[in-house]
Design a protein that fits this description.
The complex is a heterodimer. Chain A has helices at 15-28, 42-47, 51-72, 81-100, 104-107, 110-118, 136-151, 158-178, 183-187, 190-198, 211-215, 221-224, 260-264, 297-315, 320-332, 337-368, 374-382, 386-403, 408-418, 436-465, 470-492, and strands spanning 204-208, 226-227, 235-237, 270-274, 497-498. By secondary structure, chain A is mainly alpha-helical. In chain A, helix 7 packs parallel to helix 14 (297-315), helix 14 packs across helix 17 and helix 20 (436-465) runs antiparallel to helix 21. Chain A is globular. Chain B is mainly beta. Chain B has one helix at residues 5-10; strands at residues 24-30, 37-46, 57-64, 72-75, 77-80, 83-90, 93-103, 109-119. In chain B, the strands form 2 sheets. Chain B has a 4-stranded antiparallel β-sheet, with no helix packed on it. A 4-stranded antiparallel β-sheet of chain B has the order 4-3-7-8, with no helix packed on it. In chain B, strand 5 and strand 6 (83-90) form a beta hairpin. The radius of gyration of chain B is 16 Å and the shape is elongated. Classes of the chains: A mainly alpha, B mainly beta. Chain A binds chain B through residues 61, 64-65, 68-69, 72-74, 76-80, 83-84, 87-88, 153, 155-156, 319, 400-401, 403-404, 407, 415, 418-420, 429-430, 432-433, 495-501, 504-505, and chain B through 1-2, 5-6, 8-14, 33, 36, 61, 63-71, 73, 92-95, 97, 99, 117-122. Strand 5 of chain A pairs parallel with strand 7 (93-103) of chain B, so a sheet runs across the interface.
């Protein structure tokens, strides 16, 4: 595998390369792109130096309430704020925000509020080990979260959900208490990696407004930050902690929308700009702090896990999964739930993509005459699957979000009523959400959107790879996208069957 | 506010009203295995002296164990003294929790819970 670039040293790619990378996107946006920071009210609010803290505080308070309710409140999952907010509202709102705008949940991350507070007194001393500066650990954690979700039925347990939140706070404080920069966000956080890869399909990106202004910039505050002139230790404004140098930054990968670069730029030259969603995946420019996507096997693996994990996560919630699990249990004489689930995960998240992508790569190489090795081809095209994966996450989480949209009302009413403070009245348990007849078309709309994005990306990559036979290069990847799309459609049409007890029945 | 919150939420930890002293609540569901669709829930109420308790109002509530799903409700009908039956519509397969909200004829309230694991999809 090609080593990912050293975080800070690789961050500064020449402005020339950065400009080239943006040229293609700018073709789609001939006029001055939309800039969220110029929108009345929202723009000044986000440009305010303490805007992030302002957004983090409510989520921090909500997190605290969720922990308390999860540990001490009703044990029934649909009646507890911890489970309702985590598994219905948070997940749904997160993917919808990424679809409609960008990675605003990382911006408002409550864990980072606790971490920033800690760092007022505790200054980390260590650099994250070079060999770990990649996405393999968070990929493992991401799969671990999906696995635990199924194995322990996290959705059904307010208590476990609360401990997941507590564990997250603890992990952030330990990692970022020991290691410098945004180590947790970039190299550990599974939610962050989910957001990074999903937000490649977002319509907004933190980006430079005018590259010529950057050409004349001497201080590079957007990445270095600003310090007091003497003795040069007091940080007045952080630069990018994720090693993304704005003039050479391409796309949303690794960007937490923290807006440190916006606040640091002395020329007010960083905005939140409109762009073609998923356009950043149609080419392979060098990216600040990342390098080229085609040389990052780890990020390609993240895209694959993101896509096939969406299928696995949905598969765990429909009826046929229990037939498969029972068959595995009978055939292999397994008594352990974890082992059966392990086989399913291995089949869907490892074996299936290895087989399908390997086959598509082999066909591309043999039929379209692409000279590079099959692994390099697989890595290059793996990113094309992320819009389809995102479509499936949207369909799944969007379903729970919309059909359970109003459940927060009776659960909140109940929380206050249980406290002896029925200020919002008795719980209206019949208040649930939008009807399925409204939500189901939305699900298929998300999927079709994802398929269209994946097909377009695969076509653009194929066109670049084989000018003589672009159709031949595209065909296996287009077919793969269609196969996965049909799998998603099949999953969405299966009867829902949500059991925390896998072997029941 | 943050300091005061734990005290508030400890209140939320109190258990629902259980069966008053001596009152026996037996619940069952037929047929087995339970499948999605309407199934009959039976409730038998007896006093400490093993006498059937008639005239109670029994409301049955079914919740999926996944948050965000619509609960289902049914009022039980007294089929014979102390025996109540309610048709409950399990709208989908999965793990369900059935709650019994019982108001006795003297106004006392009783809560009971029954787990219905692995309701099968049709």
């Amino acid at each position: 595998m090609t080593k990912p670039p050293d975080a800070l040293s690789s961050a500064v790619i020449s402005d020339e390369e950065g400009r080239e990378a943006h040229a293609e996107e700018e073709e789609f946006l001939e006029a001055q792109p939309f800039d969220l920071l110029t929108v009345p009210v929202i723009g000044p609010l986000l440009s305010w130096r303490h805007s992030r803290t302002l957004l983090q505080i409510p989520l921090f308070v909500v997190s605290f309430v969720m922990i308390l309710q999860g540990l001490l409140g009703p044990t029934l999952s649909p009646k507890n704020l911890a489970t309702v907010l985590t598994w219905v509202h948070f997940r749904g709102a997160l993917v919808l925000a990424i679809l409609c705008a960008g990675n605003f949940f990382c911006l408002a991350c409550p864990f980072m509020l606790a971490r920033n507070f800690m760092r007022k007194w505790i200054h980390p001393r260590f650099a994250w080990p070079r060999r770990l500066r990649n996405k393999w650990i968070p990929i493992g954690l991401f799969v671990g979260v999906l696995f635990s979700y199924e194995l322990f039925g996290l959705w059904a347990s307010p208590w476990l959900t609360a401990w997941v939140i507590v564990g997250y706070f603890a992990a952030v404080l330990i990692v970022d208490g020991l290691f410098t920069h945004a180590t947790f966000c970039k190299y550990i956080c599974p939610i962050g990696q989910f957001n990074f890869i999903a937000s490649t399909a977002s319509p907004l990106e933190v980006a430079v407004r005018d590259h010529e202004v950057c050409d004349g910039c001497k201080t590079k505050d957007c990445i270095r930050g600003r310090r007091e002139p003497s003795p040069d230790v007091v940080v007045l404004q952080r630069g990018c902690e994720l090693a993304l140098f704005q003039p050479a930054k391409v796309g949303n990968m690794d960007c937490t929308f923290c807006l440190d670069c916006v606040h640091a730029c002395p020329h007010d030259n960083v905005g939140i700009l409109g762009r073609l969603p998923a356009g950043e995946l149609m080419s392979d420019p060098p990216r600040s702090g990342i390098g080229r996507f085609s040389r990052r096997n780890d990020i390609a693996a993240l895209a694959i896990v993101f896509c096939f994990g969406a299928l696995m996560n949905a598969f765990g919630m429909v009826s046929p999964v229990y037939t498969v699990e029972s068959w595995l249990k009978r055939t292999l004489h397994f008594q352990s739930q974890a082992m059966v689930l392990g086989i399913l995960f291995t089949a869907i998240i490892v074996a299936e993509p290895a087989l399908l992508l390997g086959l598509a790569s082999w066909i591309t190489r043999a039929w379209a005459g692409v000279k590079t090795g099959w692994l390099a081809i697989a890595v290059r095209y793996a990113y094309a699957l992320s819009p389809l994966g995102f479509g499936m996450w949207l369909a799944h989480y969007g379903y729970h979000f919309f059909t359970g949209l109003y459940t927060i009302v009776p659960v909140t009413q109940n929380a206050f009523a249980e406290l002896g403070l029925p200020i919002f009245g008795e719980p209206h348990w019949t208040l649930v959400g939008l009807p399925k007849t409204v939500v189901e078309p939305l699900e298929f709309g998300f999927l079709i959107l994802g398929l269209a994005g994946s097909m377009l990306i695969a076509w653009r990559l194929a066109h670049d790879d084989s000018e003589e036979h672009p159709l031949r290069a595209f065909a296996p990847w287009g077919a793969l996208c269609v196969i996965l799309f049909l799998c998603c459609v099949w999953l969405l049409t299966q009867p829902m069957d949500m059991r925390a007890t896998m072997f029941a029945g | 506010m943050l300091v005061a919150m734990p005290a508030f939420f400890v209140g939320g930890c109190r258990k629902p009203a259980g069966a008053p002293d001596g009152i026996s609540i037996k619940t069952s569901i037929t047929p087995r295995p339970v499948r999605s669709g309407t199934e009959t829930i039976s409730i038998q109420l007896t006093s400490a002296s093993q006498q059937p308790i008639a005239g109670a109002h029994v409301q049955v509530e079914g919740d999926m164990d996944h948050p965000g799903m619509a609960p289902v409700f049914a009022d039980a009908v007294e089929s014979s003294p102390g025996n109540y039956k309610a048709p409950l519509n399990f709208t989908m397969g999965g793990d369900w929790v059935v709650l019994f909200h019982i108001t006795l004829s003297d106004g006392r309230k009783v809560e009971q819970q029954m787990d219905v694991k692995g309701v099968e999809s049709n």
